[in-house]
Automatic annotation (TrEMBL):
Region of interest (Disordered), residue spans: 313-335
Species classification: Bacteria, Bacillati, Bacillota, Bacilli, Bacillales
Name of the protein this chain belongs to: Transglutaminase-like domain-containing protein
Pfam families documented for this protein: TgpA_N, Transglut_core
Entry keyword annotation includes Transmembrane helix: yes
Every Transglutaminase-like domain range: 498-584
Length: 748
């Protein structure tokens, strides 16, 4: 019977069937796995992603080419994973052992396993995840469950951690929709081959609507401009409800928007990052947590990029007429940078060596260093790069933006000797430089000068005046990346910040500090660069306890776009430039002179009167590993609950049916079920005219869909017996009718 039916079936396009119905869902599984590994971008090395991506590319190609030869596909994919691991993980191949001694072979295997760790494990796990998803999610319900679980996991990570995963969520939804389309076509072929064969003759017309809908969804999601969040994320709300400080996941950094602007109407949609155009500061921005550089240093410090001297009332510009000297760019030869003779022998100097590796491949206009760079030890940059040194502003600037891979620089960082600074007066050394760093626009409102004087009335020296300005700004005005620009009336950005907007970010705070200090006759300048970033190893050790911080902050730091920042420097005769941090919530890491420890008299306490040590109060709140575990557990529980609901759905439907039909005879239940079946069929697109009898309707439906005809005829016969026959009927007949209608429902 089945052979005759198969022979009666019309021929179909074999390539179309194999490529779309049998293989395409594996590509959707591949897309899901790629999106699910995106949150690890900041934790895995670039080599890890190269190995995984190339291994998954081999998976996709082999799954499309070889449909049914499972072992061949697995062998090709495993070979690809090992091959790309050896290629990208910088593993050194020692050659095969020339002996049969097991100890030699064991050492050979151990050595190569260590060379390929952890790349090969992660690549094989990604391949296994693709196979597991493609093998398990072979029904619509399972595909929906997998898509919902993936979207839930990505959305939870996006909400609780500083990752922007909305693109991954869009691609996940698109892959899930495509997966459902493939499964629907597969079911259509199995249940209604006649309809499928006629549709399959025009494959492009069949797939075009789905491609248009999914393509529009992806395009709208990707091209949609990002709007500020209307609601706080759950983690932030939860921490604020407990009056706890919200930890910074991206280090201590603030922001410097790429295209700052002060517009009278709306907010800027810029992202945080280091920018060159400071002619108009202000506006708002969104945080960008993408990494910029990796810094290995023996002293934690801010990364100084450029200084600006001329304040225009709207922003900053460079002073004209500065001299600079060309520095040989490229190579590993050490280059000593000429410094201005501003530091005396009495000034404490600490040598800071930093090796900076650029993660973001954008071209650089300046090289960043801690405070005043003194030696450029090594620079790996493009060959035609021309690097210049400005000794006055202590800037290493390229004539044109250049590609930089890495460089090593030594800086002279002044130790902060506050006692000595209080004995010195601020001054720029010469009248010409003093005029530069005391410059203010003529249109500066008088109330800015008056506020600076009123804040510093109790100070007796220049250093304390600057510290009072610093304290006033950081404690009076709140930090926000989205200041309310509708309050701004003044044309001067500092005046607007101090008296109208009264909130802002680092550009507002640092500019206000420089302007107020200059109004007091103290030479100052505006500085921009990056904060120190975050040390991942310290952060992890601190979470797990038992961590003793390095007082110098030596280590490896990840610096992100969100760490872009601006601050101020003031000049003291005989000491040099001193950094100040007026931005609320920030503190600049400056080394201090080592002083002899003071002897402290410790009173002798009678042991008998000493109270028993009380156990330390346990720290409230959840740490990051706990949050991750809770999210993972919640996703797993939801996944299992959905799976159980699907598995038990038939039993649940049967129980509800028994409850609904309580007190009725089997024949009455058959009639009710038939009415429900007809409504169900009509909702699925089966048409029924008002003048048609039920038999005419079922004959019409069975003629159009031959695969449903036997069940439709059986259900109709049982219904007519129950509707027009005598007696109450038997439970066995009702059970048989229920099984028949259930098969019809599942087929649709």
């Amino acid at each position: 019977m089945s052979i005759a039916l198969a022979e009666a079936r019309p021929k179909e396009n074999v390539l179309w069937r194999r490529m779309v119905l049998e293989r395409l869902h594996r590509i959707f599984a591949l897309i899901l796995v790629i999106q699910l590994i995106q949150p690890f971008q900041e934790y895995w090395w670039p080599e890890t992603y190269r190995v995984i991506y190339w291994a998954l590319a081999v998976y996709g190609a082999s799954e499309l080419v070889f449909s049914r030869m499972l072992w061949l596909r697995l062998a090709i994919q495993a070979a690809g994973a090992f091959g790309f691991t050896l290629a990208f993980a910088r593993a050194e191949w020692q050659g095969w052992p020339q002996t049969r001694d097991w100890s030699v072979w064991r050492g050979f295997l151990t050595h190569n396993a260590e060379e390929m760790h952890p790349y090969i494990e992660l690549a094989l796990f990604a391949l296994l995840a693709c196979h597991a998803l493609a093998h398990w999610a072979i029904t619509k319900r399972r595909a929906v469950l997998v898509t919902i679980a993936a979207v839930t996991m990505l959305a939870a990570i996006d909400s609780f951690f500083p990752f922007e995963l909305w693109r991954s969520i869009i691609w996940t939804v698109a892959a899930g929709l495509g997966w459902l389309v493939v499964l629907h076509l597969r079911m259509l072929r199995e249940m209604h081959f006649d309809s499928w064969s006629s549709l399959a003759e025009r494959p492009f017309e069949l797939m075009l609507p789905a491609l248009i809908v999914i393509g529009l969804l992806v395009a709208l999601g990707i091209l949609m401009p990002k709007a500020p969040s209307l609601l706080e994320d759950p983690y932030t709300l939860w921490m604020r409800a407990q009056d706890k400080e919200i930890p910074s996941f991206s280090g201590e950094g603030g922001t410097l928007i790429t295209n700052s602007s002060v517009s009278s109407g709306g907010q800027s949609s810029s992202k945080s990052g280091y920018g060159r155009n400071d002619s108009q500061i202000g506006g708002g921005f969104q945080y960008d947590y993408s990494p910029v550089m990796q810094v290995v240093t023996n002293q934690k410090s801010y990364l100084r990029g450029e200084t600006k001297a001329v304040y225009t009332g709207k922003g900053w510009s460079d002073r004209k007429g500065q001299s600079s000297q060309q520095v040989a760019a490229g190579g590993d030869e050490e280059r000593k940078l000429p410094l201005e003779p501003e530091l005396t022998d009495e000034t404490g100097i600490r040598k800071v060596e930093q090796t900076i590796t650029m993660v973001k491949k954008d071209r650089l206009s300046v090289l960043f260093a801690a405070s005043s760079a003194s030696n450029l030890v090594e620079l790996e940059s493009s060959r035609n790069a021309q690097l210049f040194w400005n000794p006055e502003e202590r800037e290493l600037r390229f004539q044109r933006p250049a590609s930089v891979a890495s460089y090593t620089v030594v800086s002279e960082v002044q130790e902060l000797d506050e006692e000595r600074l209080r004995t010195l007066s601020a001054g720029a050394g010469s009248d010409s430089l003093g005029a530069v760093y005391l410059q203010l626009p003529d249109a500066l409102p008088q109330r800015v000068r008056d506020l600076a004087r009123s804040v510093t009335t109790t100070a007796t020296n220049d250093y304390d005046r600057l510290k009072q300005l610093e304290q006033y700004l950081s404690s009076t005005y709140p930090y926000t990346n989205t200041p309310d620009l509708s309050k701004q009336k003044s044309k001067d950005v500092v005046d607007a910040f101090l008296f109208e907007i009264q909130e802002g970010y680092c550009d507002y705070f640092s500019t206000a500090f420089v302007v107020m200090a200059r109004s007091l006759g103290i030479p100052t300048r505006w500085v921009k660069g990056y904060t120190a970033g975050v040390n991942p190893s310290e952060d992890q050790q601190e979470r797990y306890g038992g961590y003793i911080p390095d007082p110098n902050g030596a280590g490896s730091y990840t610096v992100r776009n969100s760490d872009a920042h601006s601050w101020a420097e003031a000049y003291f005769e005989g000491y040099g430039w001193v950094s100040f941090e007026p931005t609320a919530g920030f503190s600049i890491p400056l080394p201090v002179p080592e002083r002899a420890p003071e002897e402290i008299d410790v009173p002798v306490v009678d042991a008998s009167t000493t109270p028993e040590a009380q156990p330390e109060e346990q720290e409230d709140g959840w740490k990051l590993p706990t949050i991750v575990s809770v999210i993972a557990a919640a996703v797993v529980i939801l996944f299992l609950a959905g799976w159980l609901v699907i598995r038990r759905r038939g039993g649940w439907r049967l129980a509800m049916r028994k409850l609904r039909h309580l007190g009725t005879t089997p024949n009455q239940r058959i009639v009710k079920e038939m009415e429900s079946l007809v409504r169900f069929m009509q909702r699925r697109g089966f048409k029924r005219d008002k003048h048609e009898t039920l038999r005419e309707t079922f004959d019409s439906w069975g003629g159009r869909f031959q695969s449903l005809k036997p069940d439709l005829e059986g259900a109709l016969a049982q219904f007519e017996w129950a509707r027009y026959g005598s007696g109450q009927g038997e439970e066995a007949a009702y059970a048989e009718f229920s099984r028949t209608t259930e098969r019809i429902r599942k087929a649709l």
